[in-house]
Amino acid sequence: MNNFIRKEVEMTSEIERMNNMRGNILRGVLVGSVIAFCIFMYPSIFSLFINIRYRWSYRYLVGAFILWLLVLLIFMTRYWLYKKKLKRDPSFRTAVNDERVKLNWLRAYRFTFFIATGITIVWKLFESSFSHELLMGKFHLPNGPFLILYVALISLIGSFLYYNREVKDG
Fold it and tell me: Mean pLDDT throughout 122-141?
């Protein structure tokens, strides 16, 4: 009986460790993406105050994209190791990816869909409005698909981490 309880406690602690590992991977991608997004948007915001040249802002865009790819590469490697650990034991995999986690992913996808749709609508309204013509010489927005991709990724991971937060002490 004692061995059974000990194995149950070990399994529970291993599940918590894997959940923490998943959370750390997602937090790392979120922080790296937010930093890359800030670098990505820096020339656009900075162009409101001073006149910048295209080549200068292009370096920021390329740098942000390279930083983002490096972050994704590092954390995809960590995710691969995480999945490799989960493949060892099917019952362990089902315990880590239970119905609650699957429901939280679906809720996060739904939230991200509405955010991406909203950003696309606002983007198109801005492009077709009169204020776009007034600000065109001063405010340079980055390419739309990259902006939507960044915001969609940030909102997906952030909303999943929000929905999947554990209730601590009570």
Answer: 64
Asked if the model's pLDDT at residue 132 lies above 70, the reply is: no
Instruction: Over range 79-98, report the average pLDDT.
Output: 82
In angstroms, rounded to a whole number, what is the distance separating the alpha carbons of residues 22 and 107? 17
pTM: 0.70
What are the backbone dihedrals phi and psi of residue 108, each rounded to the nearest 5 degrees, phi first? -65, -40
CA 54-69-40 angle, to 5 degrees, is: 30
Radius of gyration of the chain (CA): 21
Residue 116 to residue 108: CA distance in whole angstroms: 12
Of 117, 1, 123, 142, residue with least CA distance to 61: 142
Sorted by sequence, the CB contacts under 8 Å of residue 117 that are 6+ apart come out as none
Angle, helix 2-46 to helix 54-86, in steps of 10 degrees: 170
Length of the chain: 170
| Residue 11: φ, ψ to 5° | -65, -40
Continuous segment of H or E residues that includes residue 62: helix 54-86
Q: Which sequence spans correspond to the domains of the chain?
A: 2-163
Cβ(18)–Cβ(85) below 8 Å: yes
Per-residue pLDDT band for 39 (boundaries 50, 70, 90) equals confident
